[in-house]
Specification:
Layout (H helix, E strand, L loop, with lengths): L6 E6 L3 E7 L5 E8 L3 H14 L31
């Protein structure tokens, strides 16, 4: 049987970030809640947790306002949800 690919998940909320690892079939291997503080501290904590599990991300993982953020006006802004 082939080894399943490890997937990282992140649920970003206002008071906490929930990080998890698992497989595409829905199996959750690990789960951690990180209390949100400043954007920089929170993103660093999330990145460290995911990196410790062997999870990497495509694209940028920096906090809005960080010096290396993309020069895109909408970067870091969540569009409104339909009602």
């Amino acid at each position: 049987m082939a080894e399943q690919q490890l997937i990282g998940a992140l649920e970003a909320g206002g008071s906490k970030m929930v990080c998890a690892t698992g497989h595409a079939d829905g199996t959750v291997l690990e789960r951690e809640q990180i209390v949100t503080t400043t954007p920089q501290e929170t993103v660093e904590a999330v990145n460290a947790w995911l990196a410790d599990k062997g999870i990497a991300a495509f694209g940028s993982k920096c906090a809005k306002g960080a010096p290396h953020r993309p020069a895109i006006p909408s970067y870091g802004i969540t569009p409104p949800r339909p009602v």
